[in-house]
TrEMBL record:
<dbReference type="GO" id="GO:0004020">
    <property type="term" value="F:adenylylsulfate kinase activity"/>
</dbReference>
<feature type="domain" description="APS kinase">
    <location>
        <begin position="25"/>
        <end position="175"/>
    </location>
</feature>
<keyword id="KW-0067">ATP-binding</keyword>
<comment type="function">
    <text>Catalyzes the synthesis of activated sulfate.</text>
</comment>
<feature type="transmembrane region" description="Helical">
    <location>
        <begin position="87"/>
        <end position="109"/>
    </location>
</feature>
<dbReference type="InterPro" id="IPR059117">
    <property type="entry name" value="APS_kinase_dom"/>
</dbReference>
<keyword id="KW-1133">Transmembrane helix</keyword>
<keyword id="KW-0808">Transferase</keyword>
<keyword id="KW-0597">Phosphoprotein</keyword>
<feature type="binding site">
    <location>
        <begin position="33"/>
        <end position="40"/>
    </location>
    <ligand>
        <name>ATP</name>
    </ligand>
</feature>
<dbReference type="InterPro" id="IPR050512">
    <property type="entry name" value="Sulf_AdTrans/APS_kinase"/>
</dbReference>
<dbReference type="InterPro" id="IPR027417">
    <property type="entry name" value="P-loop_NTPase"/>
</dbReference>
<protein>
    <recommendedName>
        <fullName>Adenylyl-sulfate kinase</fullName>
        <ecNumber>2.7.1.25</ecNumber>
    </recommendedName>
</protein>
<feature type="active site" description="Phosphoserine intermediate">
    <location>
        <position position="107"/>
    </location>
</feature>
<keyword id="KW-0812">Transmembrane</keyword>
<dbReference type="InterPro" id="IPR002891">
    <property type="entry name" value="APS"/>
</dbReference>
<dbReference type="Pfam" id="PF01583">
    <property type="entry name" value="APS_kinase"/>
</dbReference>
Length: 199
C-alpha cells in the first residue's frame, strides 16, 4: 500500500484552540500492567475525579475496544501490536480533539508502548505502570482467566505463557496491592497538576 497520492490536509482550527475551549490541556494517561492489576479500576476512578472537576475525558479500555474497533484481533504479538497501533492512532486523534484520554491496555511490549507514544504530541504521553505483582493479580482472578491459562485453556496469556516487559521509565508506578484506590487517584491528580495538564 502506498500513501504517495494522499496529501495531509491542513485545517484552520487547531488543537490549542480546542484545548482553550475546554480550559485544560489534552494528554494521554496510558495505564499498562498485567490483567487484573487494576488498570480499568484506577482509570475509571481517575476519570470520575476529572469529570467531577469539569474536565473533558474519554476512557479507552482494552476489553471494550476488542468488541468493536479491534474485534478481529487476537493475542499474538502481531495482533497485540496492531491492536495498540489502532488504539494509539485513535488516542492521537482524541488528543488533537482536546481531550484527556485515559487508556487501560495490558500493552505488554516496550516497542508497542513506544509505537503508541509515537502517535501522541511530545510531552502529552504519561505512562503509568500498574505494577501489582502477578501473584496478587492471579489471586484476584477477576475474570477467571488465570485459572484457564494455568489449565492451558488460554494460550499466550500475559504473565503466564506470554511476556510482560515492565516500563523502565514510567512517569508513575502504582502497586494496587499496597496503594488504595483513593491514594492512586490522588497521586495521578498531583502528577497531572505538576505537569500543568490540569490546574
Ligand atoms: N491471552 C491473553 N492475554 C492477555 N489478556 C487476555 C488474553 N485473552 C483474553 N484476554 C483479555 O483481554 C484483555 C487484554 O486486552 P488488551 O487489548 O488490553 O491486550 S493487549 O494490550 O493487546 O496485550 C484482558 O483484559 P484485562 O484483564 O482488563 O487486562 C483480558 O481480560
Ligand atoms: N487498591 C486497589 N486499586 C485498584 N483495584 C483494586 C484495589 N484493590 C483491589 N482491587 C481490585 O482489583 C481488581 C482489578 O481489576 P481490573 O481493574 O479489571 O484490572 P485490569 O483492568 O488491570 O485487568 C478489581 O476487582 C478491583 O476491585
Amino acid at each position: 500500500m502506498t500513501h504517495n497520492d494522499i496529501k495531509w490536509q491542513q485545517h484552520d482550527v487547531n488543537a490549542a484552540q480546542r484545548e482553550a475551549l475546554f480550559g485544560h490541556q489534552s494528554a494521554v494517561i496510558w495505564f499498562t500492567g498485567l490483567s487484573g492489576s487494576g488498570k480499568s479500576t484506577v482509570a475509571n476512578a481517575l476519570e470520575q475525579a476529572l469529570v467531577a472537576q469539569g474536565k473533558h475525558t474519554y476512557l479507552l479500555d482494552g476489553d471494550n475496544v476488542r468488541h468493536g474497533l479491534c474485534a478481529d484481533l487476537g493475542f499474538s504479538a502481531e495482533d497485540r501490536t496492531e491492536n495498540l497501533r489502532r488504539v494509539g492512532a485513535v488516542a492521537g486523534l482524541m488528543v488533537d480533539a482536546g481531550l484527556l484520554v485515559l487508556s487501560a491496555f495490558i500493552s505488554p511490549y516496550r516497542n508497542q508502548r513506544e509505537l503508541v507514544k509515537s502517535f501522541i504530541a511530545p510531552g502529552k504521553f504519561i505512562e503509568v505502570h500498574i505494577a501489582t505483582p502477578l501473584e496478587v493479580c492471579e489471586q484476584r482472578d477477576v475474570k477467571g482467566l488465570y485459572k484457564k491459562a494455568r489449565a492451558g485453556q488460554i494460550s499466550q496469556f500475559t504473565g503466564i505463557s506470554d511476556p510482560y516487559e515492565a516500563p523502565q521509565h514510567a512517569d508513575l508506578v502504582l502497586d494496587t496491592s499496597v496503594t488504595s484506590l483513593q491514594d492512586s487517584v490522588q497521586q495521578l491528580l498531583a502528577l497531572l497538576k505538576k505537569r500543568q495538564i490540569i490546574s
